[in-house]
Write a structure and sequence with these properties.
The complex is a heterotrimer.
Chain A: H1 19-38, E1 44-50, H2 59-67, E2 69-75, H3 79-87, E3 95-96, H4 100-108, H5 128-131, E4 142-155, H6 167-170, E5 179-182, H7 185-195, H8 205-218, E6 222-226, H9 230-236, E7 241-245, H10 246-253, E8 259-262, E9 269-276, H11 284-294, H12 297-307, H13 314-319, H14 322-325, H15 335-338, E10 341-342, H16 348-363
Parallel strand pairs in A: 1-2, 1-3, 5-6, 5-7, 9-10
Antiparallel strand pairs in A: 4-7, 4-8, 4-9
Helix pairs in contact in A: 7-8, 7-16, 8-16
Chain B: H1 11-39, E1 42-45, E2 49-52, H2 57-62, H3 65-97, H4 101-112, H5 119-130, H6 135-143, H7 156-179, H8 184-192, H9 197-225, H10 229-234, H11 242-250, H12 256-286
Antiparallel strand pairs in B: 1-2
Helix pairs in contact in B: 1-12, 3-7, 3-9, 7-9, 8-9, 11-12
Chain C: H1 16-39, H2 56-63, H3 65-98, H4 104-111, H5 113-116, H6 119-133, H7 147-169, H8 174-182, H9 187-215, H10 219-224, H11 232-238, H12 246-276
Helix pairs in contact in C: 2-12, 3-7, 3-9, 7-9, 8-9
Classes of the chains: A alpha/beta, B mainly alpha, C mainly alpha.
Chain lengths: 364, 287, 282
């Protein structure tokens, strides 16, 4: 993946395709294929279930060079897929990357292994405000990997000033037909609750109905509900405002400087993606070793450079250039952030309440 | 009238022919589905457990107006898409089956080729064609600036277009397979007797191709009904189809029993339609 | 075939209305495909906005062993699935057509069930099945670790083959088969020499359908894939969150090119074989 913040920039097109590079590439592919098929028995390996491209460019190779352990990645696209895949039993994953609410959910179902923190000394690199995790129990079952906040991604030239309120997405026809929201029911309802001035936890049935009614009224002005690819719609010019994560918009901004991001003043939802070991992992010790590696400062820097997501790793953040540390999209500040809260998983009943309300809203 | 042969001689071939499919079907379809069918009578226990309590609550929930409405809408959209596939697919199948041999292979591959690219990127490419700044609208902008941008994406029109795009070969292939090397003498006779081409096609060709057409309708309508990626990406705020709802139950809502109930309602309905069709066919054959 | 001045009565493929529809359909099918190929040269990490021309992605693809392996896995699965599904599906179709037994209609409808069930439902069913009922041994090398995926794919693909072959059988004159048997052929000879040749177009159609269904399947593959198996659709779908890079377009373009090349080769072989045989009188 290109990393615009490192030097020299490796954006496509800068280096012409040379025969040597092509042959080298083919050669490495051939070697890679051979290693994959032959090296199975000899090297130790762990199975890593992660989001796609949610790791540094050379992280896995570096780990193998460092420790001799091969990391075999597989991918899921949403937390739900991760949960559904593990629900019937762990098919053999060693390290997984659930979000904070799913850590809570998986803990209630006893799906995660308690971590041996003595095997993860690099945990000290994590910033103090992220070390304490309300979503996890004691002993810990997860360590934070990235954090994210929802907000409004928008196209500066098409929007008046800074749209720093949820009103522009939820309760106004100002940008009719140029708005996109997330499909996620829980996110939609809880952000709506924030807009109404309430906490986004313990949202009761009455507030849910209020938000659903508001969205039903707003529906004619909403162009579409996107599946976490809102930044693509924004870039393509289909819409001018989108409910999206700051990291996604930060990545989009490297492609188009007319894009910006704001956390609305009413406050927003904070999330964290974490590293955890599911029960039944074939190689728990190697898994601990891998997690410790990922929390190392330099490794964290490499990851942050690639994915441009906010990192809870203070040591890694210190190694990053100012363009990352002071980036107002990656590390937002202001009243919006002060009013933001961590979301809690509150049980299947609450989830079903949200889902039902949104299904009805969509069908109305 | 097909004669009946004594059964005893045929047990060997009968088992050898129907045995493997039946075994695969029972072991690798019925068995897994039986578990999920049992779930449709179950309820959730905690965050990951399911207990089979024999309750009909899940099925009762599927009868709520909101779900019936979505089901009806899905049927409608799938039906329109299927009809469009038939109108486009029948001439294509006709062209292929009456083409000379070498051209036939080329045309078959030409029809199938797009479908060997991944559905997601194909849908993205379709979006690139349909969106406000997409190919079609850029062309419209150049020719008739007042009309642009045409709302071709994020609505039911796009969903139907997308469904036709995805399911066209499922209509073309069965019709082609049924039409291929049809007894031409019947058609020639009809033309010799003075009937027009259209008449010949509708009165002679279509009835002869009927099994192929029915197969095409079945293989197009049902998967179209069950598609969820196309309405997800191409649809507007109210373009949710029944498969989206079912998918949500198995994923975010984590309500596998309800998802199972919804899925099986779909199965029961389609079985009913198939059974009715089978009865009609049997009656038609008897006459 | 020379282009005669007068179009034959039944040369529907040469008649204008039919040709027009064919053209429209091919245009409709290939326009997005052209866009797909175009974006494989996009000078950007995304495939939504055109930024300029580059062949960078093809170079990256050469070094992306994972994506190539994923495609290789999917192709293998599709090929094996097609072979098995074709066999089982055709057997089912022939069996239902050939033998009159009580419950014939019921069994026929039952075999169509996998077409009806929503994929996510089947995916979950297979997940539970391979997790609790039939645990597939782990650590098997390639290609045995693709077993659960292939089994699941065959289960949902073979009914499509059955439906297509049955439609073809409906037009087959039963008396021909009986005549062969009356003349002394065993039931097997009768099947092979009389019925099967008639079925050829439906076998081709069924195989193409099964291959397509299997190659592009995401849901069922997702739920049956093991922890260290990457298949192409699953990999591509997982890219949605961040961005589906033009590398995916590049590998799809290459796949298309390979398929076209293979088809042309097959046509060549067919033509040469045809030239070597005595031409039958029309």
């Amino acid at each position: 993946m290109p990393s615009p913040l490192s030097s020299p920039p490796i954006l496509p097109g800068r280096r012409p395709l040379s025969r040597r590079r092509l042959l080298a590439g083919l050669g490495s592919a051939a070697v890679g294929l051979t290693l994959v098929s032959c090296g199975r028995e000899s090297t130790r390996k762990i199975n890593f279930y992660n989001w796609d491209t949610y790791i540094g460019r050379t992280t896995l190779a570096d780990f193998q060079a460092d420790s001799g352990i091969r990391v075999v990645p597989s991918y899921f696209a949403t937390n739900d897929e991760l949960f559904a895949k593990l629900k019937a039993g762990n098919p053999g994953y060693d390290v997984i990357v659930p979000s904070n609410e799913f850590v809570t959910r998986m803990n209630t179902a006893d799906m995660l292994m308690p971590l041996d923190m003595s095997a993860i000394p690099n945990f000290a690199n994590i910033a103090p405000e992220f070390q304490q995790a309300d979503y996890d129990t004691t002993p810990r079952h997860s360590v934070p990997y990235t954090w994210l906040v929802l907000g409004i991604g928008y196209r500066k030239s098409k929007v008046d000033g800074v749209p720093d309120s949820w009103k522009w997405l939820y309760d106004s026809d100002r940008y009719a037909g140029r708005i996109a929201l997330l499909t996620e029911a829980a996110d939609l309802i809880r952000i709506g609750a924030k807009y109404l001035g309430k906490s986004l936890n313990d949202v009761d049935a009455e507030t849910t109905a209020q938000v659903a009614a508001m969205l039903t009224r707003q529906k004619p002005y909403i162009k579409t509900f996107h599946e976490d690819n809102g930044q693509e719609l924004l870039l393509a010019g289909d819409i001018d405002l989108v409910l999206e994560y700051n990291g996604d918009i930060a990545q989009a901004m490297t492609d188009d400087s007319d894009i910006d991001f704001v956390v609305p003043k009413e406050g927003s939802l904070l999330n964290a993606d974490t590293l955890a070991i599911p029960n039944g992992a074939p190689e728990p010790e190697l898994a601990h070793q891998f997690i410790n590696f990922l929390l190392d400062a330099r490794v964290g820097k490499g990851i942050a450079e690639t994915i441009l997501y906010p990192t809870p790793n203070a040591a890694a953040k210190a190694l990053m250039p100012a363009s990352y540390r002071d980036n107002p999209v990656i590390f937002p500040t202001g009243p919006g952030m002060e009013n933001s809260q961590w979301g809690r998983y509150e049980g299947p009943e609450r989830q079903r309440l949200f889902e039902d309300a949104i299904t009805r809203m969509r069908a109305a | 009238m097909p004669s009946r042969h004594p059964r005893a001689r045929e047990i060997g071939p009968f088992l050898a022919i129907l045995g493997p499919p039946a075994a695969w079907f029972l072991l690798f379809f019925v068995a897994p589905m039986a578990v999920v069918w049992a779930y449709s009578f179950g309820s959730n226990v905690g965050a990951a457990g399911i207990e089979i309590t024999g309750t009909f609550l899940n099925y009762a929930r599927t009868l709520e107006p909101v779900y019936l409405g979505i089901l009806a809408k899905s049927f409608g959209i799938a039906a329109i898409a299927t009809l469009a596939c038939l109108l486009l697919g029948f001439p294509v199948a006709l062209a292929i089956s009456f083409a000379p041999a070498r051209l036939r292979t080329l045309l078959l591959v030409a029809i199938m080729l797009p479908f060997w690219t991944n559905l997601l990127i194909r849908t993205y490419a379709l979006m690139a064609v349909l969106r406000d700044q997409g190919l079609v609208n850029q062309a419209v902008e150049a020719v008739a600036p007042g009309l642009a941008p045409l709302p071709l994406l994020h609505n039911n029109f796009a969903v139907i277009l997308g469904l036709v795009y995805v399911h066209l070969p499922f209509m073309v292939l069965p019709i082609y397979a049924a039409l291929d090397r049809l007894d031409r003498s019947l058609l020639e006779a009809s033309l010799d007797l003075g009937a027009s081409h259209l008449d010949t096609i509708f009165r002679i060709l279509v009835p002869l191709a009927r099994p192929g057409i029915l197969a095409g309708l079945l293989l197009t309508f049902i998967p179209a009904l069950g598609s969820y990626l196309t309405p997800d990406l191409l649809g507007g705020p109210d373009s949710q189809m029944i498969a989206n709802i079912i998918e949500r139950q198995f994923k975010r809502a984590n309500d596998w029993p309800f998802g199972a109930a919804l899925a099986f309602v779909l199965v029961y309905l389609t079985l009913f339609v198939l059974a009715a069709q089978g009865l009609l066919r049997r009656r038609g054959e008897a006459e | 075939m020379s282009d005669r001045a007068e179009v034959g009565l039944l040369d529907y493929s040469r008649r204008l209305p039919v040709r027009l529809v064919l053209l429209v359909v091919l245009l409709f099918l290939y326009l997005p495909l052209a866009v797909l190929v175009l974006f494989s040269f996009n000078d950007s990490r995304r495939t939504t906005v055109w930024k300029g021309f580059t062949t960078e992605w093809y170079a990256r693809l050469a070094g992306n062993a994972e994506l190539i392996l994923a495609l290789a896995n999917s192709l293998t699965i599709a090929l094996v699935t097609t072979l098995i599904a074709l066999l089982i599906g055709t057997l089912a179709a022939i069996g239902l057509w050939r033998f009159r037994f009580p419950g014939n209609g019921l069994v026929g409808s039952a075999f169509s069930l996998p077409i009806v069930v929503p994929e996510i439902c089947m995916g979950v069913a297979f997940l539970i099945f391979f997790a609790r009922v039939l645990r597939w041994p782990q650590g098997l090398g390639w290609p045995l670790d693709l077993g659960p995926i292939i089994i699941a794919h065959v289960a949902f693909c073979f009914p499509f083959v059955t439906v297509v072959v049955r439609a073809r059988l409906a037009s087959f004159n039963r008396d021909l088969e009986e005549a062969a048997r009356d003349l002394g052929a065993s039931p097997w000879r009768a099947l092979f020499d009389v019925v099967l040749p008639h079925l050829k177009p439906s076998l081709v159609a069924g195989a193409l359908l099964a291959f397509t269904l299997s190659l592009d399947d995401f849901v069922i593959t997702f739920f049956t894939a093991g922890p260290d198996t990457v298949t192409f659709p699953v990999k591509v779908y997982s890219m949605v969150r961040f961005s589906v890079t033009p590398e995916v377009n590049a590998i799809s373009t290459l796949l298309l090119l390979i398929t076209v090349a293979l088809t042309l080769v097959a046509l060549r072989v067919q033509a040469v074989a045809g030239d070597l045989q005595p031409r039958p009188t029309a």
